[in-house]
């Protein structure tokens, strides 16, 4: 007995909660000179989360202004906090189900930025679960070659 490819994909979708989309979200934030911009995600307990962020200059010349970064758990516990960052990465494993919050605000000790550069542009790459795995390293370890 053979199963059609479409039926097979449909069964995988049903088994996987109806979604084949990866748990990866990359967004661009424009952070104002005062206040902060936050992203949040509803996440189940015991999920690995890895977030990379990068600030660029609004004129796309190079690395941009620096930001202050904080991450809070579903119940408000501070999981990560850094100041004066241009780029970075943080990771955590969720301890409870709920909404996790990552906030970015302009660092206010920037004499070299003029009035025209009052915003920071931040790329945020938010990965969860299986998407956090370094599959290239796994392939090398297992001696698996990528197909073209």
TrEMBL record:
<dbReference type="Pfam" id="PF01105">
    <property type="entry name" value="EMP24_GP25L"/>
</dbReference>
<protein>
    <recommendedName>
        <fullName>GOLD domain-containing protein</fullName>
    </recommendedName>
</protein>
<dbReference type="GO" id="GO:0016020">
    <property type="term" value="C:membrane"/>
</dbReference>
<keyword id="KW-0472">Membrane</keyword>
<dbReference type="InterPro" id="IPR015720">
    <property type="entry name" value="Emp24-like"/>
</dbReference>
<dbReference type="InterPro" id="IPR009038">
    <property type="entry name" value="GOLD_dom"/>
</dbReference>
<comment type="similarity">
    <text>Belongs to the EMP24/GP25L family.</text>
</comment>
<keyword id="KW-0732">Signal</keyword>
<feature type="signal peptide">
    <location>
        <begin position="1"/>
        <end position="26"/>
    </location>
</feature>
<feature type="domain" description="GOLD">
    <location>
        <begin position="36"/>
        <end position="130"/>
    </location>
</feature>
<keyword id="KW-1133">Transmembrane helix</keyword>
<keyword id="KW-0812">Transmembrane</keyword>
<keyword id="KW-0175">Coiled coil</keyword>
């Amino acid at each position: 007995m053979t199963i059609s490819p479409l039926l097979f994909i449909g069964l995988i979708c049903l088994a996987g909660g109806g979604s084949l989309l990866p748990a990866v979200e990359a967004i661009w934030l424009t952070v104002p000179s005062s206040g902060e911009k936050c992203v949040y995600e509803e996440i189940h307990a015991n999920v690995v989360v890895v977030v990379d962020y990068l600030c660029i200059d609004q004129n796309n010349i190079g690395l941009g202004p620096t930001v202050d970064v904080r991450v809070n758990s579903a119940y408000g516990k501070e999981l990560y906090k850094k100041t004066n960052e241009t780029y970075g990465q943080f990771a955590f494993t969720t301890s409870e189900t709920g909404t996790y919050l990552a906030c970015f605000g302009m660092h206010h000790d920037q004499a070299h930025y003029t009035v025209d550069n009052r915003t920071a542009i931040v790329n945020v790459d938010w990965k969860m679960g299986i998407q956090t795995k370094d599959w290239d390293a796994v392939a090398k370890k297992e001696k698996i070659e990528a197909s073209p």
